Amino acid sequence: MTDLRNDMDSDLDQNYSLNSNADPKNMQELTIYVQNLLQNVQDKFQTMSDQIITRIDDMGNRIDDLEKSIADLMNQAGVEGPEK
């Protein structure tokens, strides 16, 4: 009996994914549809969040490299760096 219910749930998941054009007909189908919708939104949010963090890390590394390059150029020119 449990296997039959799992099979039915699996079929409903497939039929009511976001890419499906079928409209939910009852509360269980609506629940599955909303769960899929929320999961997709969460996945997209996580992907975007990861991309933003990666870009911030890359930007920090580039700023560090730029500061080092400026310090090297100042040393080559014989100019002392700013006092901290």
TrEMBL record:
Its main location: nucleus. It is found in: Nucleus. GO terms for cellular component: cytosol; nucleus. The keyword Ribosomal protein does not apply. InterPro entries: HS1-bd (IPR009643). It comes from the Eukaryota. Transmembrane segments: none annotated. The keyword Acetylation does not apply. Keywords: Nucleus, Stress response. Gene3D superfamilies: 1.20.5.430. It holds the Pfam family HSBP1. Residues 13-23 have a biased composition (Polar residues). GO terms for molecular function: transcription corepressor activity. Signal peptide: none annotated. Residues 1-23 are annotated as: Disordered. GO terms for biological process: cellular heat acclimation. Homohexamer. Associates with heptad repeats of HSF1 trimers and probably also HSF1 monomers, and with HSP70. Association with HSF1 trimers and HSP70 coincides with attenuation of heat shock response and the conversion of HSF1 trimer to monomer. Negative regulator of the heat shock response. Negatively affects HSF1 DNA-binding activity. May have a role in the suppression of the activation of the stress response during the aging process. Belongs to the HSBP1 family. This is Heat shock factor-binding protein 1. It comes from Drosophila lebanonensis (Fruit fly). The gene is LOC115631680.
